[in-house]
Protein backbone atom coordinates (compact mmCIF):
# COMPACT_ATOMS: atom_id res chain seq x y z
CA UNK A 1 0.00 0.00 0.00
CA UNK A 2 1.30 3.48 -0.74
CA UNK A 3 1.46 6.01 2.01
CA UNK A 4 3.46 8.42 -0.09
CA UNK A 5 2.96 12.15 0.15
CA UNK A 6 2.84 13.89 -3.23
CA UNK A 7 6.59 14.18 -3.70
CA UNK A 8 6.21 16.32 -6.78
CA UNK A 9 9.71 17.51 -7.36
CA UNK A 10 10.76 13.91 -8.00
CA UNK A 11 9.03 14.47 -11.32
CA UNK A 12 12.43 15.62 -12.47
CA UNK A 13 13.83 12.26 -11.42
CA UNK A 14 11.20 9.84 -12.44
CA UNK A 15 8.82 11.16 -15.01
CA UNK A 16 11.30 13.37 -17.04
CA UNK A 17 11.41 9.52 -15.78
CA UNK A 18 0.74 -16.61 -6.54
CA UNK A 19 1.64 -23.41 -4.76
CA UNK A 20 -0.04 -26.24 -5.71
CA UNK A 21 -1.59 -26.43 -8.84
CA UNK A 22 -1.82 -29.05 -11.43
CA UNK A 23 -5.59 -29.48 -11.31
CA UNK A 24 -8.60 -27.35 -10.60
CA UNK A 25 -10.85 -29.94 -8.94
CA UNK A 26 -13.92 -28.73 -10.74
CA UNK A 27 -17.13 -30.62 -10.29
CA UNK A 28 -17.31 -33.31 -12.99
CA UNK A 29 -20.57 -31.98 -14.42
CA UNK A 30 -18.92 -28.61 -15.04
CA UNK A 31 -21.41 -26.83 -12.77
CA UNK A 32 -20.30 -23.45 -11.46
CA UNK A 33 -19.57 -23.07 -7.75
CA UNK A 34 -22.65 -22.29 -5.71
CA UNK A 35 -20.97 -20.35 -2.89
CA UNK A 36 -17.70 -18.43 -2.61
CA UNK A 37 -16.27 -16.85 0.54
CA UNK A 38 -13.79 -14.00 0.77
CA UNK A 39 -12.19 -13.18 4.11
CA UNK A 40 -11.34 -9.48 4.30
CA UNK A 41 -13.02 -6.40 2.83
CA UNK A 42 -10.04 -4.21 2.08
CA UNK A 43 -9.15 -3.26 -1.47
CA UNK A 44 -7.87 -6.79 -2.19
CA UNK A 45 -10.96 -8.59 -0.88
CA UNK A 46 -13.53 -6.27 -2.44
CA UNK A 47 -11.73 -6.25 -5.80
CA UNK A 48 -11.66 -10.07 -5.67
CA UNK A 49 -15.43 -10.12 -5.11
CA UNK A 50 -15.89 -7.87 -8.13
CA UNK A 51 -13.65 -9.93 -10.42
CA UNK A 52 -15.13 -13.27 -9.24
CA UNK A 53 -18.58 -11.96 -10.08
CA UNK A 54 -17.36 -11.00 -13.54
CA UNK A 55 -15.93 -14.46 -14.22
CA UNK A 56 -18.42 -16.78 -12.51
CA UNK A 57 -21.55 -14.83 -13.43
CA UNK A 58 -24.68 -13.70 -11.59
CA UNK A 59 -25.78 -17.02 -10.04
CA UNK A 60 -22.90 -17.70 -7.65
CA UNK A 61 -23.42 -16.52 -4.05
CA UNK A 62 -20.50 -14.45 -2.73
CA UNK A 63 -20.05 -13.81 1.01
CA UNK A 64 -17.42 -11.33 2.20
CA UNK A 65 -16.39 -11.60 5.87
CA UNK A 66 -14.96 -8.54 7.58
CA UNK A 67 -14.23 -8.32 11.32
CA UNK A 68 -13.50 -4.59 11.20
CA UNK A 69 -14.62 -1.90 8.79
CA UNK A 70 -14.90 -2.11 5.02
CA UNK A 71 -11.79 -0.59 3.46
CA UNK A 72 -9.20 -2.16 5.74
CA UNK A 73 -6.05 -0.08 5.41
CA UNK A 74 -7.97 2.50 3.40
CA UNK A 75 -9.50 4.59 6.17
CA UNK A 76 -10.32 8.14 7.23
CA UNK A 77 -10.46 10.09 10.48
CA UNK A 78 -12.62 13.13 11.23
CA UNK A 79 -11.22 16.49 12.33
CA UNK A 80 -13.56 19.47 12.73
CA UNK A 81 -16.36 17.77 10.77
CA UNK A 82 -14.07 16.98 7.83
CA UNK A 83 -12.56 13.61 6.89
CA UNK A 84 -8.88 13.01 6.15
CA UNK A 85 -7.06 9.93 4.83
CA UNK A 86 -5.30 8.08 7.65
CA UNK A 87 -4.30 5.06 5.56
CA UNK A 88 -3.44 4.53 1.90
CA UNK A 89 -3.77 7.98 0.44
CA UNK A 90 -2.47 8.16 -3.14
CA UNK A 91 -2.88 6.22 -6.38
CA UNK A 92 -0.55 6.26 -9.38
CA UNK A 93 -1.87 7.30 -12.79
CA UNK A 94 -0.76 3.96 -14.28
CA UNK A 95 -2.93 2.00 -11.83
CA UNK A 96 -5.35 0.80 -14.50
CA UNK A 97 -7.51 -1.41 -12.25
CA UNK A 98 -8.06 1.40 -9.75
CA UNK A 99 -8.88 3.80 -12.58
CA UNK A 100 -11.40 1.32 -13.98
CA UNK A 101 -13.01 0.88 -10.54
CA UNK A 102 -13.46 4.63 -10.16
CA UNK A 103 -15.01 4.87 -13.63
CA UNK A 104 -17.40 1.93 -13.11
CA UNK A 105 -18.47 3.21 -9.70
CA UNK A 106 -19.08 6.76 -10.92
CA UNK A 107 -16.64 8.17 -8.39
CA UNK A 108 -14.67 11.36 -8.95
CA UNK A 109 -11.02 12.24 -8.83
CA UNK A 110 -10.09 14.49 -5.94
CA UNK A 111 -8.72 17.87 -6.89
CA UNK A 112 -4.99 18.17 -6.43
CA UNK A 113 -3.84 21.01 -4.18
CA UNK A 114 -0.29 22.06 -4.96
CA UNK A 115 2.34 22.13 -2.25
CA UNK A 116 6.13 22.06 -2.19
CA UNK A 117 8.26 19.34 -0.60
CA UNK A 118 11.64 19.37 1.13
CA UNK A 119 14.03 16.85 2.68
CA UNK A 120 15.18 17.46 6.30
CA UNK A 121 18.20 15.74 7.86
CA UNK A 122 17.49 16.69 11.48
CA UNK A 123 19.45 19.92 11.29
CA UNK A 124 18.64 21.57 7.97
CA UNK A 125 16.85 21.17 4.68
CA UNK A 126 19.20 19.50 2.20
CA UNK A 127 16.82 19.46 -0.75
CA UNK A 128 14.07 21.95 -1.43
CA UNK A 129 11.48 22.15 -4.16
CA UNK A 130 11.06 25.58 -5.70
CA UNK A 131 8.48 27.12 -8.02
CA UNK A 132 10.92 26.74 -10.89
CA UNK A 133 11.19 23.36 -12.62
CA UNK A 134 14.46 24.18 -14.36
CA UNK A 135 16.01 25.42 -11.14
CA UNK A 136 15.03 22.16 -9.40
CA UNK A 137 16.54 20.22 -12.29
CA UNK A 138 19.77 22.19 -12.14
CA UNK A 139 20.06 21.76 -8.37
CA UNK A 140 19.61 18.01 -8.69
CA UNK A 141 22.23 17.80 -11.40
CA UNK A 142 24.64 20.01 -9.45
CA UNK A 143 24.31 17.99 -6.24
CA UNK A 144 23.94 14.45 -7.64
CA UNK A 145 25.28 14.45 -11.19
CA UNK A 146 23.48 12.05 -13.51
CA UNK A 147 22.28 9.75 -10.70
CA UNK A 148 18.69 10.90 -11.16
CA UNK A 149 18.79 10.13 -14.90
CA UNK A 150 20.07 6.62 -14.20
CA UNK A 151 17.31 6.18 -11.62
CA UNK A 152 14.68 7.49 -14.01
CA UNK A 153 15.65 5.04 -16.75
CA UNK A 154 15.67 2.12 -14.28
CA UNK A 155 12.21 2.91 -12.88
CA UNK A 156 10.73 3.50 -16.34
CA UNK A 157 12.07 0.17 -17.61
CA UNK A 158 10.58 -1.69 -14.62
CA UNK A 159 7.23 0.06 -14.95
CA UNK A 160 7.09 -0.68 -18.68
CA UNK A 161 7.58 -4.40 -17.98
CA UNK A 162 5.13 -4.41 -15.06
CA UNK A 163 2.43 -2.87 -17.26
CA UNK A 164 2.38 -6.15 -19.25
CA UNK A 165 0.20 -7.61 -16.48
CA UNK A 166 -2.82 -5.72 -17.78
CA UNK A 167 -2.41 -7.27 -21.23
CA UNK A 168 -1.98 -10.76 -19.75
CA UNK A 169 -5.01 -10.36 -17.51
CA UNK A 170 -7.02 -8.82 -20.35
CA UNK A 171 -6.41 -12.03 -22.32
CA UNK A 172 -7.45 -14.14 -19.31
CA UNK A 173 -4.07 -15.55 -18.25
CA UNK A 174 -3.42 -16.34 -14.58
CA UNK A 175 -0.50 -17.41 -12.40
CA UNK A 176 -0.37 -19.92 -9.56
CA UNK A 177 2.34 -18.09 -7.61
CA UNK A 178 3.75 -14.61 -7.19
CA UNK A 179 7.03 -15.92 -8.59
CA UNK A 180 5.32 -17.10 -11.81
CA UNK A 181 3.61 -13.75 -12.16
CA UNK A 182 6.81 -11.76 -11.70
CA UNK A 183 8.79 -14.06 -14.01
CA UNK A 184 6.23 -13.61 -16.78
CA UNK A 185 6.66 -9.84 -16.54
CA UNK A 186 10.38 -9.40 -16.05
CA UNK A 187 12.02 -12.82 -16.18
CA UNK A 188 14.71 -13.75 -13.68
CA UNK A 189 15.51 -10.05 -13.34
CA UNK A 190 12.28 -9.34 -11.46
CA UNK A 191 12.73 -12.44 -9.29
CA UNK A 192 16.29 -11.41 -8.43
CA UNK A 193 14.99 -7.98 -7.46
CA UNK A 194 12.89 -9.57 -4.69
CA UNK A 195 16.09 -10.90 -3.08
CA UNK A 196 18.57 -8.07 -3.64
CA UNK A 197 18.57 -4.86 -1.63
CA UNK A 198 17.57 -1.58 -3.21
CA UNK A 199 20.82 0.12 -2.24
CA UNK A 200 22.92 -2.67 -3.76
CA UNK A 201 20.95 -2.52 -7.02
CA UNK A 202 21.16 1.27 -7.29
CA UNK A 203 24.88 1.41 -6.54
CA UNK A 204 25.41 -1.17 -9.27
CA UNK A 205 23.47 1.10 -11.65
CA UNK A 206 25.88 3.92 -10.90
CA UNK A 207 23.58 5.90 -8.60
CA UNK A 208 25.64 7.75 -6.02
CA UNK A 209 25.54 6.95 -2.30
CA UNK A 210 24.72 10.57 -1.59
CA UNK A 211 21.67 10.45 -3.86
CA UNK A 212 20.56 7.17 -2.22
CA UNK A 213 20.91 8.67 1.28
CA UNK A 214 19.35 12.04 0.55
CA UNK A 215 16.60 11.25 -1.98
CA UNK A 216 15.89 7.50 -2.11
CA UNK A 217 15.96 6.89 1.66
CA UNK A 218 13.38 9.63 2.44
CA UNK A 219 11.00 8.16 -0.16
CA UNK A 220 11.38 4.67 1.38
CA UNK A 221 10.78 6.13 4.86
CA UNK A 222 7.55 7.89 3.90
CA UNK A 223 6.23 4.99 1.78
CA UNK A 224 7.24 1.93 3.82
CA UNK A 225 8.78 3.29 7.04
CA UNK A 226 11.91 1.30 6.22
CA UNK A 227 15.37 1.93 4.90
CA UNK A 228 17.25 1.30 1.66
CA UNK A 229 17.97 -2.34 2.58
CA UNK A 230 14.45 -3.30 1.41
CA UNK A 231 14.28 -5.45 -1.74
CA UNK A 232 14.87 -3.67 -5.04
CA UNK A 233 11.44 -4.57 -6.48
CA UNK A 234 9.64 -3.07 -3.48
CA UNK A 235 11.86 -0.02 -3.85
CA UNK A 236 10.98 0.35 -7.52
CA UNK A 237 7.23 0.19 -6.70
CA UNK A 238 7.82 2.84 -4.06
CA UNK A 239 9.77 5.12 -6.40
CA UNK A 240 7.12 4.80 -9.11
CA UNK A 241 4.68 6.09 -6.51
CA UNK A 242 6.83 9.16 -5.82
CA UNK A 243 5.97 10.86 -9.07
CA UNK A 244 3.80 13.86 -9.76
CA UNK A 245 1.03 12.04 -11.65
CA UNK A 246 -0.79 10.86 -8.53
CA UNK A 247 -4.46 11.02 -7.66
CA UNK A 248 -7.03 10.10 -5.00
CA UNK A 249 -10.78 9.55 -4.78
CA UNK A 250 -13.11 12.38 -3.88
CA UNK A 251 -14.76 11.45 -0.58
CA UNK A 252 -12.00 9.00 0.39
CA UNK A 253 -10.25 6.05 -1.24
CA UNK A 254 -12.24 3.61 0.94
CA UNK A 255 -15.32 4.41 -1.20
CA UNK A 256 -13.80 2.14 -3.86
CA UNK A 257 -14.07 -0.82 -1.46
CA UNK A 258 -17.70 -0.25 -0.43
CA UNK A 259 -18.56 0.46 -4.08
CA UNK A 260 -16.99 -2.76 -5.32
CA UNK A 261 -18.96 -4.80 -2.76
CA UNK A 262 -22.20 -3.34 -4.10
CA UNK A 263 -21.13 -3.78 -7.72
CA UNK A 264 -20.32 -7.44 -7.01
CA UNK A 265 -23.70 -7.90 -5.28
CA UNK A 266 -21.70 -9.51 -2.48
CA UNK A 267 -23.18 -10.29 0.93
CA UNK A 268 -21.16 -8.57 3.67
CA UNK A 269 -20.96 -10.52 6.95
CA UNK A 270 -19.52 -8.49 9.82
CA UNK A 271 -17.77 -11.35 11.61
CA UNK A 272 -14.45 -12.85 12.61
CA UNK A 273 -13.67 -16.05 10.72
CA UNK A 274 -12.29 -18.43 13.36
CA UNK A 275 -11.64 -21.72 11.52
CA UNK A 276 -11.41 -22.96 7.96
CA UNK A 277 -11.50 -26.74 7.40
CA UNK A 278 -11.74 -28.95 4.27
CA UNK A 279 -14.52 -31.49 3.65
CA UNK A 280 -14.67 -33.95 0.76
CA UNK A 281 -17.65 -33.30 -1.50
CA UNK A 282 -17.64 -36.03 -4.13
CA UNK A 283 -14.76 -35.38 -6.52
CA UNK A 284 -14.10 -31.90 -5.11
CA UNK A 285 -13.42 -30.24 -1.77
CA UNK A 286 -15.65 -27.87 0.11
CA UNK A 287 -14.55 -25.65 2.97
CA UNK A 288 -16.34 -25.09 6.23
CA UNK A 289 -15.96 -21.60 7.66
CA UNK A 290 -16.81 -21.07 11.32
CA UNK A 291 -17.27 -17.45 12.29
CA UNK A 292 -18.36 -15.26 15.19
CA UNK A 293 -20.31 -12.00 15.15
CA UNK A 294 -20.86 -9.80 18.21
CA UNK A 295 -24.00 -11.73 19.07
CA UNK A 296 -23.74 -15.24 17.61
CA UNK A 297 -21.63 -17.93 16.01
CA UNK A 298 -22.22 -19.41 12.58
CA UNK A 299 -20.91 -21.96 10.10
CA UNK A 300 -21.18 -22.19 6.31
CA UNK A 301 -19.80 -24.39 3.52
CA UNK A 302 -18.14 -22.90 0.43
CA UNK A 303 -16.79 -24.26 -2.85
CA UNK A 304 -14.07 -21.62 -3.13
CA UNK A 305 -12.44 -19.52 -0.38
CA UNK A 306 -10.14 -16.54 -0.82
CA UNK A 307 -8.26 -15.25 2.22
CA UNK A 308 -7.66 -11.54 1.63
CA UNK A 309 -6.15 -10.62 4.98
CA UNK A 310 -2.58 -11.14 6.22
CA UNK A 311 -1.98 -14.59 7.73
CA UNK A 312 1.33 -13.85 9.46
CA UNK A 313 1.15 -14.74 13.16
CA UNK A 314 2.30 -11.24 14.14
CA UNK A 315 -0.82 -9.71 12.58
CA UNK A 316 -3.24 -11.98 14.45
CA UNK A 317 -5.76 -12.83 11.76
CA UNK A 318 -7.60 -15.06 14.26
CA UNK A 319 -8.04 -17.78 11.61
CA UNK A 320 -7.16 -21.39 12.43
CA UNK A 321 -6.77 -23.92 9.61
CA UNK A 322 -7.96 -27.32 10.86
CA UNK A 323 -8.18 -30.79 9.34
CA UNK A 324 -5.77 -30.24 6.45
CA UNK A 325 -3.57 -33.22 5.53
CA UNK A 326 -0.79 -32.36 5.30
CA UNK A 327 -1.04 -29.27 7.52
CA UNK A 328 -0.88 -25.98 5.67
CA UNK A 329 2.53 -24.32 5.88
CA UNK A 330 2.93 -21.32 8.18
CA UNK A 331 3.08 -18.00 6.37
CA UNK A 332 6.41 -16.50 7.44
CA UNK A 333 7.30 -12.87 8.04
CA UNK A 334 5.94 -9.96 10.03
CA UNK A 335 4.24 -6.65 9.32
CA UNK A 336 5.82 -3.29 9.93
CA UNK A 337 4.32 -0.89 12.44
CA UNK A 338 3.88 2.63 11.16
CA UNK A 339 2.14 5.20 13.32
CA UNK A 340 0.02 7.77 11.51
CA UNK A 341 -0.76 10.78 13.69
CA UNK A 342 -3.34 13.26 12.41
CA UNK A 343 -2.59 16.47 14.30
CA UNK A 344 -4.71 19.61 14.25
CA UNK A 345 -2.46 22.45 15.28
CA UNK A 346 0.27 24.96 14.51
CA UNK A 347 3.48 23.63 12.97
CA UNK A 348 6.65 24.64 14.82
CA UNK A 349 8.46 26.14 11.86
CA UNK A 350 11.35 27.25 14.12
CA UNK A 351 12.35 23.58 14.49
CA UNK A 352 13.01 23.58 10.76
CA UNK A 353 14.95 26.85 10.83
CA UNK A 354 12.09 29.23 10.00
CA UNK A 355 11.34 31.46 13.04
CA UNK A 356 8.69 33.30 11.01
CA UNK A 357 6.02 30.74 9.96
CA UNK A 358 4.86 33.04 7.16
CA UNK A 359 8.15 32.34 5.40
CA UNK A 360 7.85 28.53 5.66
CA UNK A 361 7.19 27.42 2.08
CA UNK A 362 6.73 23.63 2.37
CA UNK A 363 3.61 21.50 2.58
CA UNK A 364 5.52 18.21 2.98
CA UNK A 365 8.71 17.41 4.87
CA UNK A 366 10.47 14.10 4.31
CA UNK A 367 13.41 12.99 6.43
CA UNK A 368 16.69 11.20 5.93
CA UNK A 369 17.69 8.09 7.87
CA UNK A 370 19.53 10.13 10.50
CA UNK A 371 20.10 9.24 14.18
CA UNK A 372 17.72 11.06 16.47
CA UNK A 373 15.04 11.79 13.88
CA UNK A 374 11.83 10.58 15.50
CA UNK A 375 9.49 10.96 12.50
CA UNK A 376 9.55 9.79 8.88
CA UNK A 377 7.50 12.61 7.39
CA UNK A 378 5.18 15.47 8.23
CA UNK A 379 2.75 17.02 5.80
CA UNK A 380 -0.08 19.48 5.67
CA UNK A 381 -3.01 17.41 4.36
CA UNK A 382 -6.27 18.27 2.66
CA UNK A 383 -9.69 16.79 3.43
CA UNK A 384 -11.13 14.03 1.24
CA UNK A 385 -13.80 16.43 0.03
CA UNK A 386 -12.28 19.52 -1.54
CA UNK A 387 -14.72 22.31 -2.29
CA UNK A 388 -14.34 24.91 -5.01
CA UNK A 389 -12.12 27.70 -3.80
CA UNK A 390 -10.40 25.48 -1.21
CA UNK A 391 -6.90 26.55 -0.29
CA UNK A 392 -4.26 24.81 1.76
CA UNK A 393 -3.75 26.29 5.25
CA UNK A 394 -0.68 28.48 5.61
CA UNK A 395 1.91 27.52 8.27
CA UNK A 396 0.93 30.45 10.49
CA UNK A 397 -2.63 29.07 10.62
CA UNK A 398 -3.93 26.03 12.49
CA UNK A 399 -3.84 23.19 9.97
CA UNK A 400 -4.26 19.44 9.82
CA UNK A 401 -1.01 17.49 9.52
CA UNK A 402 -0.24 13.82 8.99
CA UNK A 403 2.94 12.65 10.70
CA UNK A 404 4.36 9.19 10.05
CA UNK A 405 6.66 7.85 12.76
CA UNK A 406 8.01 4.47 13.88
CA UNK A 407 6.67 5.02 17.43
CA UNK A 408 3.69 6.98 18.78
CA UNK A 409 4.63 10.63 19.28
CA UNK A 410 5.06 11.44 22.98
CA UNK A 411 4.46 14.93 24.34
CA UNK A 412 8.07 16.12 23.89
CA UNK A 413 7.97 14.97 20.26
CA UNK A 414 4.64 16.72 19.65
CA UNK A 415 5.97 19.88 21.32
CA UNK A 416 9.01 19.72 19.03
CA UNK A 417 6.95 19.52 15.85
CA UNK A 418 4.04 21.76 16.89
CA UNK A 419 3.89 25.09 18.71
CA UNK A 420 0.47 24.05 19.99
CA UNK A 421 -2.25 21.65 18.94
CA UNK A 422 -5.96 21.06 19.46
CA UNK A 423 -6.18 17.32 18.80
CA UNK A 424 -4.10 14.24 17.96
CA UNK A 425 -5.62 11.10 16.43
CA UNK A 426 -3.28 8.10 16.30
CA UNK A 427 -3.56 5.00 14.12
CA UNK A 428 -0.93 2.32 14.71
CA UNK A 429 -0.98 0.53 11.37
CA UNK A 430 0.50 -2.85 10.59
CA UNK A 431 0.64 -1.21 7.27
CA UNK A 432 2.86 -3.30 5.02
CA UNK A 433 5.33 -6.18 5.31
CA UNK A 434 8.56 -5.74 7.21
CA UNK A 435 10.80 -6.35 4.27
CA UNK A 436 13.94 -8.42 4.40
CA UNK A 437 16.01 -9.04 1.30
CA UNK A 438 15.96 -12.85 1.43
CA UNK A 439 12.49 -14.08 2.42
CA UNK A 440 10.50 -16.33 0.11
CA UNK A 441 7.25 -15.07 -1.34
CA UNK A 442 4.13 -16.60 0.28
CA UNK A 443 2.01 -19.08 -1.72
CA UNK A 444 -1.13 -18.12 -3.63
CA UNK A 445 -2.72 -21.60 -3.64
CA UNK A 446 -3.04 -22.92 -0.08
CA UNK A 447 -5.23 -25.94 -1.01
CA UNK A 448 -7.42 -27.14 -3.91
CA UNK A 449 -9.78 -24.15 -4.02
CA UNK A 450 -8.34 -22.15 -1.12
CA UNK A 451 -6.40 -19.07 -2.17
CA UNK A 452 -4.28 -16.43 -0.42
CA UNK A 453 -4.23 -12.91 -1.81
CA UNK A 454 -1.86 -11.01 0.45
CA UNK A 455 1.31 -12.80 -0.62
CA UNK A 456 1.61 -10.20 -3.40
CA UNK A 457 2.47 -7.59 -0.76
CA UNK A 458 5.82 -9.26 -0.22
CA UNK A 459 6.74 -8.34 -3.78
CA UNK A 460 5.37 -4.82 -3.38
CA UNK A 461 2.65 -3.25 -1.23
CA UNK A 462 0.27 -0.83 -2.92
CA UNK A 463 -3.43 -0.61 -3.73
CA UNK A 464 -2.76 -1.59 -7.32
CA UNK A 465 -0.64 -4.60 -6.35
CA UNK A 466 -3.64 -5.86 -4.34
CA UNK A 467 -5.94 -5.18 -7.31
CA UNK A 468 -3.63 -7.09 -9.67
CA UNK A 469 -3.55 -9.98 -7.17
CA UNK A 470 -7.37 -9.89 -6.94
CA UNK A 471 -7.76 -10.18 -10.71
CA UNK A 472 -5.17 -12.96 -10.81
CA UNK A 473 -6.92 -14.99 -8.10
CA UNK A 474 -10.32 -14.56 -9.76
CA UNK A 475 -8.86 -15.81 -13.06
CA UNK A 476 -6.91 -18.60 -11.35
CA UNK A 477 -9.95 -19.80 -9.39
CA UNK A 478 -12.08 -19.70 -12.54
CA UNK A 479 -9.61 -21.60 -14.73
CA UNK A 480 -8.84 -24.24 -12.09
CA UNK A 481 -12.56 -24.77 -11.43
CA UNK A 482 -13.25 -25.02 -15.18
CA UNK A 483 -10.13 -27.14 -15.81
CA UNK A 484 -8.80 -24.59 -18.30
CA UNK A 485 -5.24 -25.19 -17.21
CA UNK A 486 -3.82 -23.93 -20.49
CA UNK A 487 -4.64 -20.45 -19.16
CA UNK A 488 -2.44 -20.88 -16.05
CA UNK A 489 1.35 -20.34 -15.83
CA UNK A 490 1.88 -20.12 -19.58
CA UNK A 491 5.37 -19.28 -20.77
CA UNK A 492 6.33 -16.63 -23.32
CA UNK A 493 3.03 -14.81 -22.99
CA UNK A 494 4.08 -11.72 -24.94
CA UNK A 495 4.65 -13.90 -28.02
CA UNK A 496 1.40 -15.85 -27.41
CA UNK A 497 -0.66 -12.68 -27.19
CA UNK A 498 0.85 -11.27 -30.37
CA UNK A 499 -0.03 -14.43 -32.28
CA UNK A 500 -3.58 -14.35 -30.86
CA UNK A 501 -4.22 -10.89 -32.25
Taking the alpha carbons of the first and last residues, their distance comes to 34 Å
CATH topology of the domain at 35-72 and 255-334 and 436-500: FAD/NAD(P)-binding domain
Dominant shape: globular
**Class based on secondary structure composition and strand pairing:** alpha/beta
Q: Into which percent range does the helicity of residues fall?
A: 25-40%
GO molecular function: prenylcysteine oxidase activity
Family: Belongs to the prenylcysteine oxidase family.
Protein name: Prenylcysteine oxidase-like isoform X1
Keywords: FAD, Flavoprotein, Glycoprotein, Oxidoreductase, Signal
Quick structural overview:
With 501 residues, this protein is α/β, with parallel strands linked by helices. The protein has helices spanning 11-14, 43-56, 96-105, 133-144, 147-162, 164-170, 178-193, 198-205, 209-224, 232-240, 255-263, 411-417, 463-482, 493-500; strands at residues 35-39, 61-65, 76-79, 82-85, 91-92, 116-120, 125-128, 246-247, 267-269, 272-281, 284-292, 297-302, 304-307, 320-321, 335-347, 362-367, 377-380, 399-405, 418-433, 445-447, 450-452.
Amino acid sequence: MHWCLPFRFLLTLLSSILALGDSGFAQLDGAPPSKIAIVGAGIGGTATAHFLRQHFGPEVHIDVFEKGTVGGRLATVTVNHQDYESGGSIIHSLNLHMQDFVKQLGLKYRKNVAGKTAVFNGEEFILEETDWYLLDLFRLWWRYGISFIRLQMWVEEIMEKFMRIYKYQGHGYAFSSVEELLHSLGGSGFLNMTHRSLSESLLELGVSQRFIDEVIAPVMRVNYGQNISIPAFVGAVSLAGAQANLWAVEGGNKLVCSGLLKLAKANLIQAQVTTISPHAAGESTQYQLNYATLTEKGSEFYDIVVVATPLQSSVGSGISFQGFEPQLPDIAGSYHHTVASIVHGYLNCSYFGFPDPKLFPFASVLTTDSPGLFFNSAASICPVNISTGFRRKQPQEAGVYKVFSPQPLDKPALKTLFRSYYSVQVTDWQAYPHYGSTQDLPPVVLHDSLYYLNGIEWAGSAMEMSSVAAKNIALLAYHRWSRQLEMVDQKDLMHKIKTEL
